[in-house]
Amino acid sequence: MQIVGVEIPGGAPVLSFALGHGEDPYQVVWEQGYRVTRPLSVTGTVEDLSVTLLVAEHHRPIVPRGPQKIRSTLRPDESGCEPVVRQRLAAYALVVSRRGLLATEFSSRTAVPGMWGLPGGGIDPGENPAATVQREVYEETGQTIEILRFLDMQSDHWIGHSPTGVVEDFHAVRLIYAARCDAPIDAVVHDVGGTTASSRWVPPASLREVSWINGSRALLAKHGQSVLRTLHHQGA
């Protein structure tokens, strides 16, 4: 994945780099003398993705922080395992409708069964991230959605077991979109037996009652209200 920074939308790049395994794009941008103002766009497919960020010089001392912190979910007796290195590009969405926000429950195939997150998943070969979100939302919840805008990106790095049991040095890069569903129905999981156990619409007043994973909770705190306001202004 290529990260491109511009100081004005449509302007010439002031920075560009390939995101290495385990790197946090926001941290790399900072260490090049800039801060991210907001994400702008994503182009290409999983083989040649390019993410453009609006950036501004921060004029602060630059102290390299080194690699992103790695979490480990391995047992003490597994610490000697040689993990498979994997960077996974995925796309997710804050999907809103007149029924609330769409949420998915993690299954027992994951490290966080019973916790809740946002619908989405890995980007398939030849697929662009927006198409990934639409496909995954339908597979995990049965909803048909409209993509509104590219919202954010997250980077997470840990060592642990994949759903198939393989020990991985895993770098998750998540592209986050805002989306709406104009004809919400009761949520249903079509991809049975995968990493999604169930799904549902969560009314705005009940968002704080849900056991969200940390990444989804952070996204909701940062973007939840603005996405819900967008839905209200558009009259859904």
From TrEMBL:
> GO MF terms on file?
hydrolase activity
Supply the alphabetized keyword list: Hydrolase
Q: Name one Pfam family in it.
A: NUDIX
UniProt KW Thylakoid keyword: no
Q: Does the keyword Iron-sulfur apply?
A: no
* Protein name per Swiss-Prot or TrEMBL: DNA mismatch repair protein MutT
Organism equals Propioniciclava flava
Domain (Nudix hydrolase) spans: 86-225
Cofactor(s) this protein cannot do without = Mg(2+)
Which InterPro entries does this entry report, sorted A to Z?
A: Nudix_hydrolase, NUDIX_hydrolase-like_dom_sf, NUDIX_hydrolase_CS, NUDIX_hydrolase_dom
Can you tell me which family this protein belongs to? Belongs to the Nudix hydrolase family.
